[in-house]
Design brief:
By secondary structure, the protein is an alpha+beta fold. It is built from 6 helices and 20 strands. Helix 2 packs antiparallel against helix 3. It binds flavin-adenine dinucleotide (FAD).
């Protein structure tokens, strides 16, 4: 365990942060021991993956744990393929490796930064696919007593960028392993955006994953070059009446009817229409190509970022009457 550990390089926004204590356990037993110690000493606990969906404060009190459980394996029998992936496995590396082996199911989720352990937290999704569609179960430890448990996917209350881990279990568990069910049967999902135009009529899983990478690289800023946490706001879900009212005034507004009757609107379009693409204030700005992404030019703090984001959301609310909800999570 290290004290006063610098986390500036452990978050893709590149915010300055020092953790009071930091540990990177490499086994479930070591993680259990840390949970027990944190409980006994009453240290507030923060779980860190690769920091690509987190807003870190300058000082993070208590203990930060970054599980380095980086083993994965395939279990295959009678046409059933299960992937067991430790929480510390890099998500994108796993997606590419599985696509290379001809396994279908998560190829559309290529190039999403972060660890496997964090993937269920907001039910990662992209290009018309969400993690919950292939997830079988989540192995976890209860923070309170280190107890191991396995949560089947149906108990995870998955929704759009949402799960039980952001609600009832928020701060109460550490995910140690995912189990996903993939398929050897070709199942390309190409109906989202312009993905179909980037591949042949009968692509392999690897070709789909590579096409997704190409499109994403052209659209999104690379956090290694410009600090960001991907989409800063969720696409808002509004009632059918509210959507119809907006569509009368703005017929070009991208909108997606949902099974529950609500309508999902494109937050990036709303921000763009407020004239905010490329808008900069101090150390933060709205990305010049993708209005949904807020970027950090260096030298700023979490408090400044939150004030900047509030100002963006405020302008959208004033013009369209739609509230934007933040996607990255606040630590500490
Ligand atoms: C350029 C860019 C593009 C992105 N594109 C997408 C996208 O297309 N779709 C999408 O859904 N997301 C996207 N994201 C967001 C991000 O990649 C995902 O949310 C990812 O799952 C976060 O993983 P992480 O390991 O970095 O988690 P972190 O940021 O470290 O943590 C995120 C949350 O998960 C918790 N957590 C982490 N590990 C564990 C664990 N083992 N057990 C319990 N809790 C844990 C943390 O406490 C925190 O609350 C993007 C981010 C960036 C920077």
């Amino acid at each position: 365990m290290q004290s006063h550990h610098d986390l500036s390089r452990f978050n893709t926004l590149g915010l300055p942060c020092v953790a009071e204590r930091f540990a990177a356990p490499t086994s479930v037993e070591a993680l259990q021991e840390l949970l027990w110690m944190a409980g006994k000493q009453e240290w507030p606990l923060t779980v860190l993956g690769e920091g690509s969906n987190l807003i870190l404060p300058e000082w993070l009190k208590g203990l930060v744990v970054r599980p380095i459980l980086d083993e994965w394996r395939l279990e295959e029998s009678k046409g059933r393929v299960l992937v067991h992936a430790g929480a510390g496995v890099n998500w994108h590396t796993l997606v590419m490796e599985l696509a290379r082996r001809g396994l279908w199911g998560i190829e559309n989720l290529a190039l999403i930064p972060g660890s496997c352990g964090a993937a269920p937290i907001q039910n990662i999704g992209a290009y018309g696919v969400e993690l919950c569609e292939t997830l079988e179960a989540v192995h976890l430890l209860h923070v309170e007593d280190g107890r191991e448990a396995v949560l089947p996917s149906r108990a995870c209350a998955f929704g759009y960028r949402d799960s039980v881990f952001k609600r009832e279990l928020d701060g109460r568990v550490v995910i140690t392993r995912l189990v996903m069910r993939l398929s050897r049967i070709s199942r390309p999902r190409l109906d989202y955006g312009d993905l179909a135009t980037h591949v042949d009529a009968h692509p392999t899983a690897l070709q789909v994953a590579e096409a997704v990478c190409t499109i994403r690289r052209a659209k999104l800023p690379d956090p290694a070059l410009l600090g960001n946490a991907g989409s800063f706001f969720k696409n808002p879900l509004v009632s059918l009446e509210a959507a119809e009212r907006l569509l009368r005034d703005y017929p070009q507004l991208p909108h997606f009817p949902q099974p529950d009757g609500r309508v999902k609107l494109a937050a990036g379009w709303l921000i763009d229409r407020c004239g905010l693409k490329g808008w900069r204030q101090g150390h933060f700005g709205v990305h010049e190509r993708q209005a949904l992404v807020l970027v950090h030019f260096g030298g700023g703090s979490a408090a400044e970022l939150l004030a900047f984001a509030e100002s963006v959301a405020g302008q959208v609310a004033e013009r369209f009457g739609v509230d934007l909800e933040r996607e990255p999570r606040l630590a500490g």
